[in-house]
Amino acid sequence: MPEGSGEGAHSVAAVPIRTVVVAAFAVILAACGTRLPDSAFTTTTVAGAPTRAASTNPASDVGVTPTEVRVGLIVSKTSALGSETFSPPMYGALAYFKALNQRGGVAGRTIDVDVCDDSGTGAGNRNCVHKLVDDDKVFAFAGNSIYQYVAASEVSDKDVPDVAGQPIGNAYDQYQHLYNLYGAVYPRHGTVGYDGNLYGGTEVYRYFKTALGTKTAAVVSYNQADSQRFADLIVRSLQAEGYSVVSEQVDFAVPNFDAVAADMKAHGVDSVFDSLDAAGNVNLCNAMDSAGLVVKAKVTTVQSWDETVRSQYANAPACRNSLYATSMDQNYMDTQYPAVAQFRAEIQAAVVRRQPHPGVLRGLHEPAGRLRRPRRAHPTQLHRRTDARADAAQLPQRGAVAGHRLRRQRRLGHAGARYERQLLRRARRRLLGLTAQPRARARVSPCSSAGSPAKATSPRRST
Fold this sequence. Notes:
The protein is an alpha/beta fold. The chain has a domain at 203-332 and 377-434: Response regulator (Rossmann fold), CATH 3.40.50.2300. It has helices at residues 14-29, 83-86, 88-102, 122-135, 152-157, 203-212, 225-240, 257-266, 278-291, 309-312, 317-320, 338-349, 405-434, and strands spanning 68-75, 110-117, 140-142, 162-165, 178-180, 216-222, 244-250, 271-275, 297-300, 323-325, 383-384. The strands form two sheets. The protein has a six-stranded mixed sheet, with helices on both faces. It is elongated. Residues 1-20, 43-55, 354-414 and 434-463 have low confidence and may be disordered.
């Protein structure tokens, strides 16, 4: 599901997430079942051998030894959508397990994380599942961030727990042994949701109506199934709260955000929601400012709410000043809370220098940076960026598909700009060739199934 589609995402703060992961491993390791045959537990007594030493911390399941637990992590890092689209949950998981191992691991065992990049394809996903489950014999999955989880049923059928995965499709609302990051609220007996239906609340939309007096909302989506499915949920939620709704759709490969902005202005839109990715949100805001469309709220998600807002939205100050991000997590800057301070310290300790995937829809020369967690806010404590906080004089806006070629040409030089355009054209052809329809970015953010509400307490979540 595209990244911009998680308004009101119901997610879990740092401590509950850690608690869920550790508790899951601890409970399973405490003999709540095993994939090993009974013969694996047959003991042989050797004369003169100690009777307790070998059973002090015995192996109890596949992927578990007396000293370690082998965990698998599948990430669609080198997908056509760019290296930063699905990789953040992986970096967070690696940082967490590093800190956990430094604290002694789980039940005296360290966690060995086996990462597999499925490249965002169905075939790649099946290969990763086969490698990790059948060849590497992992005990469980943790922190998955998968664009096309086509092998989800196979993972569940083999009784391999998938814990704290980033839900992008509907798999985590369908299969028994898959537990997404936000918690499982559906029975998951092979059918999505309750008899094929997913539910979400409307309180986020009511908040804007009550607090800001918004009445006419636009919902912008890509012409891709996941994006459209969540956009439909937003539309129904807004209509339930009495909004007049204007639905807008753009082509994923060659989006025309200028036309969308002009149409929204003509309809008197005063608030904008979307099921877009981060780059799409930036381009939409640029188009809105160019059209002179000023709204009371441009609602984005926690995945789009990070330090890059300062530079990414530099050319759209009016839109940037109306940005809202909704979530139920603590704000990244609120280090007065111990859990936030601990999270930031552990992420800082696990800093890695990342090289971005070249050029696909986010710009060629995106600098590698330190790990960041998106800023998050409770729906009743929505945070806004102001011009005073967002320094437009900092880094120039990164390039994207629809954007500012002249400025990028000056920065990269004619040869660099020409090479960039060639890469973008190749990326578009790849995307158009994946399926019969142009494929959109799965929601990031790294956020659950497109169009699938997390809980009845909030409309669901992103990308």
